[in-house]
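so the lab meeting is tmrw and i was supposed to have these ready like two days ago... anyway. pasting both below. for each one the top line is the aa sequence and the line under it is the structure tokens. i havent really looked at them closely yet so no promises
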Amino acid sequence: MKKSRFWRFAAALTLCVSLCGSALAKEKVLLDADMVEGFDDGMAMLMLATSPEVELLGVTVTFGNTWVTEGTAYALRQLEAVKMEWKIPVLMGIDQTTRAGRQEALQHEIQSFGSGFDGYWGAFSTPRPGDWRKVYETRYGAAPKCAPMEGHAVNFIIETVRRNPGEVTIVEIGAPCNLAAAVRMAPDIVSKVKRVIYMGGTFFVPGNTTPRAEFNWWCDPEAARTCLRAPFPEQIIIPLDACNKMPYDGAKLKSMTEMTKNPVIKQMLQAKYDFVYGSGTPRYDLFMWDLIAAAVCIDSSLITESVTAYVDIDTSFGPGYGSPNAFITGVPPVGTQKAEIVTDVDTPRIWSMIDSLCASL
């Protein structure tokens, strides 16, 4: 009788420990980003880094908004600001396009294929800076407190996925050349990734960089195609279709800046406000892009409308270069994979998450 009670107690204790462990389990996440200060990539990183539901395993830096040395300096500075510089490794990744000579031929591309509603060219429109430490010291007037982790971002992606099979969500919010290289170097990781969440593409609305292409995937369409055609267990795409439904203006940016108490992050947000709205006439329209991908990673119930389809991307060097296609009906091209294309999200709840993030910093 005593033994029976003991084993019942032991079984109950085991169940309790198991349930508690499940409740405490965090989503393991790798963030691949073309990092900027504050909105949008920087705050996406901080949302994931500070979320109690997420274990941010690392930040791999790609090009796009910025060159890799710039993005690395910005990522380190923001992690230092929230005292996570030793907790979350930052690794430098690929800093060039698959198609050679894109920066040098930029004006030819614009003249030949046109530009979209914001004509944004990111790093392509700026000269390559010096090394990351020089960027950091020049911009912040101080020496960095830490450094990027040794090794390459692509190797880090491969090693992290292999160590955590079936558990890692990759949030891809830049030109996806690091992830594409990882897929090409180690195709075995594709089945071991839990899911990939992209901010990229535009399906049923016009492009922002060209009339048909969104910036992230326009940066390296060949890399985007490699990723989209990889048979990951799950692919979720946050395209402009969803992002265009989350605009924000100077008043909202000002409000978020005022909520933020951290002096470093506050200064970054104020600098963005001054740049976009300082002259009285906005330089361009602002939308939430990468932060939506971070929010959906934390809570997929934020997706309120989506379409599942086979997806491919145009890599022919012409007017459609970098534009994706969704094959909802008919026979898709050989090699394409299904993805969930998000067309709308719960914007009030995401705004609440963003406001809470700002207030917590």
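ok protien two:
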Amino acid sequence: MATKSLQALGHNLADPDNQIAFFDQDETATSFYEKIKTYGFTPLKPDQVEIFQVNMGKMCNQVCAHCHVDAGPDRKEIMTWETMEQCLDVIKSIPSIETVDLTGGAPEMNPNFRPFVEELSKLGKQVIVRCNLTIILANPKYHDLPAFYKKHNCQVVSSLPFYKESRTDSQRGSGVFKKSIKALQMLNEVGYGKPETGLELHLVYNPAGAFLPPPQEQLKQDYKEILAADYGIVFNELFSITNIPISRFLNYLVKSGNYVEYMTKLANAFNPSTVNGLMCRNTLSIGWDGYVYDCDFNQMLDKKINCSGQHLTDLPIDELTSREIYVNQHCYGCTAGAGSSCGGEIT
């Protein structure tokens, strides 16, 4: 199957609605929609909204090889304070929302990042900050971020592709590993990662190539042992996340000739027990411009939520749990093996 060309498969990478089929182990070509239909999951519907994920902008101080947001220093898309106020209004109107997950780019580069966190803290919401670690050292104005996170009891989730320098730098850029280690030590100094403080520090592992991540629990133990022994670093959990075939990672797959093989691998590893735990079932994803999506990946494909209103200003709250979630072939990434979500393995 891996030798077949994209053209032979009838695939158009520019068309996110093209439901290209990949061959399963039984040699049956199946689109993702047809796959979940055989298990009775169509139409795929959400549960109540518990997590409100906000992309605060695509500006970032790094350019990572696996980034599905295609973030970088040259990106100008940034969420305005007006849109943040609209976020706050929607959060107040949905009582089931317990967690607000701030992402980017580097969310801290948004000039209104701190006042937004302060307002969320006043609402009593658990704030997750997806910090790339190196932002803490990027400029003196960011050096106090660990103390700011602590003040507002933010949960810090940070990408560290591997516990070895060469592999991390190859994925995220030269010198990133050493800066990440220093930032983790700064977070530890204010209490993050230490069980007795309640300040949660979680790391994220992404595969460096076209393969599925290894079992999360074993990987966590390896990270804990090596980071503690070599650098004195402690953390709470490790989230193992499958690379989703969109944006920058998709470009890598196509250029390296691994696209069909990788997609076939994901399709063959489909696990129906992951579907009930998919993050699109309990999460709303908000773009930097205020448009609403089922998940962060659909956001990057510009596939907006399937409701009568698709922006924060006209979002129909009463339709959120009755809508159909948009799915396509990239969804195989979240349902392969033990599953993948922003919180790591699903099963």
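from a quick look at the 2nd one: The beta strands are 22-23, 29-30, 51-55, 99-103, 126-131, 155-159, 201-205, 237-240, 283-286, 292-293. The two ends are 28 Å apart (CA to CA). will dig more after coffe
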